[in-house]
Every structure is written in C-alpha cells, then in structure tokens.
Amino acid sequence: MVNRHRGEIEAKFDGQRYCLCLTLGALAELESAFGEEDMLAIAERFEQGRIRAAEVIRIIGAGLRGGGHDIDDDTVANMRSESGAAGFVEVVARLFAATFCQPEDTADRGEETASVGKL
Fold first, then answer.
1. Tens of pLDDT along 1-53?
2. Residue predicted with more confidence, 117 or 12
3. What pLDDT is attached to residue 67?
4. Could you give phi then psi for residue 8, rounded to 5 degrees?
5. Are the C-beta atoms of 33 and 22 separated by less than 8 Å?
6. Do residues 101 and 115 make contact, with C-beta atoms less than 8 angstroms apart?
7. Are 56 and 13 in contact (CB under 8 A)?
C-alpha cells in the first residue's frame, strides 16, 4: 500500500501494480539526466506540458527505483500501460504532484486530495 505523505503513488504496468516514489536519490538521478540545476527546475520543465517519450521512461524508471523496484530504463521502455501512452504521461503527472505538492487538510472530508497547482 502506498503512502501519499511520503510522495508514493501506485501504477499498473503489464498487469502488475507498482509503488513509485521520487526519493532524493531518484530526483538527483533526474537532475543529472536532464541537466537541471535543482529539483524544482525539473517540475517547472514539465509543468509546460511538453514531454518526450525518453523523458517519460527516465522519470518512471527513477520513480520505480525510488519505490524499491530493481528495474532499469530498458525494462521500463518495454512495459505497457492499460491506457497506452497517455497512461504513462498520467503516471508522470501524478508522480510529480505527489512529490512537489502538499496534501490539503482533508480531515473534515475523510479523503485525501492534492493541491496540484499547474502540474
């Protein structure tokens, strides 16, 4: 079971459920891969709505590794989502929202939502 307060999300690839999390190590991996100066620059870059397939692979791979799965990017590149390419992009959006957005106070509603902003 994922813990939203730790920035974890769940995603399903090839019919199997996975926990993904952009840990500090995963974020450092992405900073290096994308040549960004800091963590927020990564989020701002994708906030613009343009993302390449190779970037999706790297982000999901980093999230899987951060979630405790020993999966390389080549394996991620061959995975399938029930929603096709749009499903992968949706996972990236949820992963960034879980990483960079604070959960709203949901005590009165008994549910958890996120303040996503532009993500």
1. 788 888 999 999 999 999 999 999 999 999 888 887 777 777 787 778 778 89
2. 12
3. 96
4. -90, 145
5. no
6. yes
7. no
Q: Strand, coil or helix: what is 59?
A: helix
Q: Tell me the average pLDDT of the chain.
A: 84
**Which one has a higher pLDDT value, 62 or 118?**
62
- Determine the residue type at 43: A
Could you tell me the residue ranges of all domains in the chain? 14-100
DSSP state of 102: P
Chain centroid, CA 77 distance in Å = 15
Residue given tokens 């995963």 in the structure block: 26
Quote the CA–CA distance of 58 and 39 in Å, as a whole number.
Answer: 15
Distance CA 57, CA 79 (A): 10
Placement of tokens 């999706």 in the chain: 56
What does the DSSP 8-state code read for residue 104?
P
Burial grade of 53 (CB within 10 A; 0-12, 13-18, 19 or more) = exposed
